[in-house]
């Protein structure tokens, strides 16, 4: 086991219905794994190691919603908590053209050790928080890169991902598209508001965090992907949390869910 819990929880006693989660909060690699998995500082600052800006948005969004939050304290390159235990991408050896040297010799025994040390504790704490109330709404926060290598720029500012449970996803997308403050912020940047519906990714992987903690329990849920260049600074993270929080609150109220 790791010396300390591989996650952070904030506002465990807050009364709000939401549980705000950040599966890819940090690029931290524990010292037992060398601190960097053999990657350069530049590579560890890329999206392959964590979701840029998502942690700050998560913390501020949870505060504004007066709800608890949970975030990982290890890089997705150590082990990906948003993958099921049998997913072949659980421990990546090659990611977006970069060889993850520290994972090159990660055999089944090592993967099992990392599951026990990092994956299991995070998900146990996640489930305990989700189970605190019967009407919890899980809101997962992620970020995506503005452009993949040799691909066109991504037009979306926000992507909302979902699987088959779209009870809150559909009205939330409509509310985002109609939100004046959100439109104004995007236009201020010289862009046109584009909300992705299961873009830039498909919204469901069997065994992922939403599947494990929301879908299998019938809990309301949505996954918010923010384009990372919009939330690189603390100020922008607070700004986007401030834009999203009232829309989430109003959408939940309007649906009566």
TrEMBL record:
UniProt keywords, alphabetically: Hydrolase
Gene3D superfamilies recorded: Zn-dependent exopeptidases
Pfam families assigned to the protein according to its UniProt record, in alphabetical order: FGase
InterPro entries xref list: N-FG_amidohydro (IPR007709), UCP029730 (IPR011227)
A single GO molecular function term of this UniProt record: hydrolase activity
The protein's name: N-formylglutamate amidohydrolase
């Amino acid at each position: 086991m790791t010396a300390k819990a591989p996650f952070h929880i904030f506002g465990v006693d807050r009364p709000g219905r939401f549980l705000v989660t950040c599966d890819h909060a940090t690029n931290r690699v524990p010292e037992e794994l060398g601190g960097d998995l053999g990657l350069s500082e530049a590579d560890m600052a890329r999206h392959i190691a964590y979701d840029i800006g998502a942690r700050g948005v998560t913390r501020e969004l949870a505060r504004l919603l007066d709800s608890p939050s949970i975030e990982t304290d290890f890089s997705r390159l150590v082990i990906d908590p948003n993958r099921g235990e049998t997913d072949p991408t659980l421990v990546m050896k090659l990611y977006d053209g970069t060889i993850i040297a520290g994972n090159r010799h990660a055999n089944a025994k090592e993967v099992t050790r990392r599951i026990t040390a990092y994956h299991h504790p995070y998900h146990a704490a996640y489930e305990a928080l989700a189970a605190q109330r019967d009407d919890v709404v899980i809101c997962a926060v992620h970020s995506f890169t503005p452009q993949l290598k040799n691909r066109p720029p991504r037009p979306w500012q926000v992507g909302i991902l979902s699987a088959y449970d779209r009870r809150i996803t559909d009205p939330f997308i409509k509310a985002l598209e109609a939100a004046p403050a959100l439109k104004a912020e995007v236009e201020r940047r010289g862009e046109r508001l584009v909300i992705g519906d299961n873009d830039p990714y498909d919204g469901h992987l069997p065994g992922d965090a939403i599947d494990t903690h929301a879908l299998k329990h019938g809990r309301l849920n949505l996954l918010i992907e923010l384009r990372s260049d919009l939330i690189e600074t603390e100020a922008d993270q607070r700004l986007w949390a401030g834009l999203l929080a009232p829309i989430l609150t109003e959408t939940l109220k309007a649906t009566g869910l």
